[in-house]
## 1
Amino acid sequence: MTVRVAVDALGGDRAPAEIVAGALAAAGEGLEPVLVGPPELDAGGLRLIEADQAIAMDEPPVEAVRAKPGSSLVRAVRAVAEGEADAAVSAGSTGAMLAASLLHLRRLPGVLRPGIAVVIPARRGPSVLIDAGANADARPEHLLQFAHMGAVFAEEILGVAEPEVGLLSIGEEDEKGNQLALGAGTLLRASGLRFRGNVESRGLLEGEVDVVVTDGFTGNVALKALEGTIRTLLDSLRAELRSSLRGRLGGLLIRPAAQRVRERLDPETYGGAYLLGLRGLVVIAHGSSSRVAIANAVRLAARGVEHQVVTRLEERLARSVLASPTTSPTAER
Amino acid sequence: MTVRVAVDALGGDRAPAEIVAGALAAAGEGLEPVLVGPPELDAGGLRLIEADQAIAMDEPPVEAVRAKPGSSLVRAVRAVAEGEADAAVSAGSTGAMLAASLLHLRRLPGVLRPGIAVVIPARRGPSVLIDAGANADARPEHLLQFAHMGAVFAEEILGVAEPEVGLLSIGEEDEKGNQLALGAGTLLRASGLRFRGNVESRGLLEGEVDVVVTDGFTGNVALKALEGTIRTLLDSLRAELRSSLRGRLGGLLIRPAAQRVRERLDPETYGGAYLLGLRGLVVIAHGSSSRVAIANAVRLAARGVEHQVVTRLEERLARSVLASPTTSPTAER
């Protein structure tokens, strides 16, 4: 079986050159990237789905998606909805990808809100943070669903049996947190998941649990704090080393090690984030993605197809969430 | 004038030895630390206010403060309320300090909620994050008040004229954020403060603005993400360097520079956080504070007294917040 991944050739700061190069790099046995872009695009031999318009990063997402059904971003998502591709990847606007996915792929039965799942390449091994930004405002029952989605992701994509789930909060004791976290904690303790309780952002990069559950606002703040701190700390170290001969010599010697640490720990280098809870597979890549990041995002999408993440999610949510008396899954459909 | 700072000798993981040593180190011209602890404590020549009981880190704050009015933590706060000291410092439970302060010092007129102000030793110079954890749930008008408090703090303690204020959110555009951030943004744009708009946690350690405003849940998550990332990144770098001869040599050469960067950027090394919005000055030190951290916290408290932070806050809040039609300052008094 060959997995076909639709790649938005016009999304991201470095489109189309780096996107096309990344898609080409990912192409291989069992994986066929399909580019979505203008007819004149040099697709390097890959199949091309024609789409002329682009959606800019700063366009209001819902309006842009409705106004530009023929844009490369929307067309890539529609390719999944219409069976032309098995998954879609874009480095374009996250909001537009979310809007296009809700409109054209729709939610899985019982799913209240899709969530963005990001892999944190933590020191003790990869873990997943969900929601990393799809829902700025959330309710406890959304976090419960994110926990189930994150657990399926950890099992299928990270290969963890019986993943441990933690709730991001501001203290490890059950009674620490805001109203949202307290409510989610109550649901999670009764969920049947392997719930470890509250975890603090202090341990995010260390990797105390396999799945870290939070709302999209907090998750986005935590993730960007992590990315920014890595960048600022390494930049500061570099500047400090340049100020002395001893430092310059030391800097030269540690360069490969520092590079390895940065590449291993920075979530940005992971390529992309899954949008979970939909009737199709969507991966959102960083806006600044290079060809390497795009190739990784395409492979990440293909892995999700091979592991049937969507089907597994549907089964899991039907079993555990629809059965739960604490949620009212029909309320927002 | 001599500033008297009451220091809780029984608060923190390393009490009383490191606390007493820190207080002694801070003592000097114009600064008199006053220890609060058991009668048998060797105060090294400092004045001692007797207090036998201690409040443990994991005791429920409000209950502990009510049940132990004679504890060292409560007694230190009461020393300020009763005029025996000009400020109080404790490395004990943050929640208990907050509860004791609300009970014995009370809020400044018009203040809805006190906020914790932490100095972020950012690369472009120090900035202040408020609220770093006093209020897990907050409303837009609380964030407006935190912005005013943070501005006074930046002026008086950081020495910034007309500080720039940013609202922590998940995108720089005004329409990005959760309901709380959107509401706070509206109030801040009309506040008369030098409001820069939304800022992302990515730039927190870089230092894009002088005052970063947020609720206590988000602020605490961001701050701990920053602290944890610094620790994990440097630990990982150290482990990576140890694995080769080249790395070990490089590691030896960069050690002083790495140490300087860590000390400069890690918020933990700053000594303490202010609890603002009260009729007295309170500084909360890290639970793990060493003598150096305690000495810094005592000096930080003295600086607040010298700069009349409480009076300046009262004037500012009376002028700008009580006058604002968007808040109802009497509602929670």
## 2
Amino acid sequence: MVKQKIGIIKIGGAFLEDEKLLETFYSAFASMEGLKVLVHGGGKRASKLSIDLGITPQMVHGRRITDAKSLEVVTMVYAGWANKTLVAGLQGRGCNALGLSGADANLIRALKRPASDIDYGLVGDVERVDADGLSTLLNAGFTPVFCALTHDGRGQLLNTNADSIAADLAMGLSPLYEVKLVYCFEKQGVLRDVSDPESVIPRIDPDHFKTLQKEGAISEGMIPKLFNSFRALQAGVDQVYIGPVSLLSGQAPKSTQIHL
Amino acid sequence: MVKQKIGIIKIGGAFLEDEKLLETFYSAFASMEGLKVLVHGGGKRASKLSIDLGITPQMVHGRRITDAKSLEVVTMVYAGWANKTLVAGLQGRGCNALGLSGADANLIRALKRPASDIDYGLVGDVERVDADGLSTLLNAGFTPVFCALTHDGRGQLLNTNADSIAADLAMGLSPLYEVKLVYCFEKQGVLRDVSDPESVIPRIDPDHFKTLQKEGAISEGMIPKLFNSFRALQAGVDQVYIGPVSLLSGQAPKSTQIHL
């Protein structure tokens, strides 16, 4: 049986803070044909709200230490402000968006990360994606829009990295669909030289990645995206790209494709 | 054709601020048999967050004047914190909850209330409920959990009273289902004397309501609930109750039934 194609698109919270970028994204995503799922972040706004409320954000290796108060903040920002802004924006452009956290319809269950030398608090690592439940929503004509929250199935919400959620959704759907995972950001792709927007690396495989890492050519924020990309490909995801939103409409002059 | 039964249950935000009340609600709602939809508020927490952020909440006749900043606040509180807390809590009790705003899947479209002597700002009055879309979700086994937000279909979220949303959902579903609408709160029902929890009025019809209003026996917060109840019954909703959560499991010793 020929599998249906699906695109899993991840955007960073930066898109929500820049009207022009957001407009470009809306057009590109709404005009994308076929099945699609959106995953979004919102970390910058969460840190801003934390500070406004007198809570100092604590980050380790780019990950938020999430105590009960910080979980309230990210829940408000990710599932509230960011998710509903995107859903209403996409609806206004004819895309039948349906906003979700992993708790909704029990679509993404996670395990609270055990405390080791670092205790991340209420942070979860994805345990199970309900691909059948997600298929039900896709078949009904909805476009799922996921924020970066999951749950443990016993009443506890968990903060979960949006890049990881995108990879886990791609992996979970790959037995049923031909999956393309796209990490969209403000740049044209992974850059060899961050100060040169033209230095896009067209193709990265694990060996190349090791070399680039040794050279210090990969920015710290890009490393988890690349690990997630390799993880997704190893689990059967068909294609992974890192690049601009123009990728969604097939009009990107440049982008980075990740290979095994 | 015999219509399937459905319960539309509305709870106030006060349930979310009281662990014991919330626990009682979870048990009652999760054990309710048949199709059900939850609608929740969150106004107290929204006012608290506003104040914490240096925004003074402005209320007229119990309704929030919603400027752009206040809309961000209610979106964070209603669709974020309140909605996802309830969804995760219900999931932990075996209820397959799916959190929604009216923008999600375009389920509730509203019209921005025109400014007259009062300009409520980004506040919407329900224009259309997509009963078929909602049926799709119900038939798939999900329990919709609505927060008090709608959209205008052109990209704008709108703050919408939760009591009204519950009535509009009940009305929208009544051609397809036998609908029971229940306004749950901390008391046993509509009280003749607010200081006497035993003074529950078992039955109110429009004439009785007028008399009670003249006598000043109805609290100001209860009046819109009663107007919404009459509106729902006139539009074909089968039953409307105001009372405690024990109503959901059929174990309330007292409650108020609204009649035409």
